[in-house]
Amino acid sequence: MYIIAGLGNPGRQYENTRHNIGFDVIETLAAQEHVEVLEKKHRALIGKGVVAGEKCILAKPQTFMNLSGESVRELVDYYKADPAGELIVVSDDVSLAPGQIRIRKKGSAGGHNGLKNLIQQLGSDSFIRVRIGVGEQPPQYDLADYVLGRFTGEERARMNRAAERAADAIRAIIAQGPDKAMNDFNGKE
């Protein structure tokens, strides 16, 4: 069983922000796979379904970004999942061009507080991550203000396409393994 967790912040005020692209990907994948992500469990909204022939839990942690790891750890513990092979985490990345995807099997948090908390909670940086580029913060912008800012209309269209590609990447990870998915999706828009 896979746990697919998209990182973001709960609440209407954070909808359509750069930091919530992880939630957007979960919503896109859920719609494509006919999974309702409505059940409140483990401090997350979750839905159970089948993705690429495998049972999956789709999750949107409700602990706010900086404490995402607490909810994800509860999910991993409850479902007895192996984080290194059965956990896929989707997050935003300011060091990637808007819409660009980067899949990794392990690595640092790269300055992302949600991933930092997740690594701390799991006690390991070995879990599959799908990072979606939201672009670099403009000069004179505070990073927090930038990632909590909303996409423009043109950016939103690009990010919707990125969310669809990320959903395809998640299916590829499950069906063909992360190495093949990395070859097929990394760096492409």
Helix count, DSSP H or I runs of 4 or more residues: 7
**Oligomeric organization of the protein chains:** single chain
Q: Please state the structural category.
A: alpha/beta
**CATH uppermost class:** Alpha Beta
Please identify which CATH superfamily we are dealing with: Peptidyl-tRNA hydrolase
Low-confidence stretches: none
Silhouette: globular
The biggest beta sheet is recorded as:
7 strands, mixed
Question: Can you tell me the CATH topology?
Answer: Rossmann fold
Average of per-residue pLDDT values: 95
Counted beta strands: 7
* Rg calculated over all Cα atoms: 15 Å
Number of spatially distinct domains: 1
Q: What's the architecture in CATH terms?
A: 3-Layer(aba) Sandwich
- Strands in their spatial order, largest beta sheet: 2-3-4-1-5-7-6
Relative helix content: 25-40%
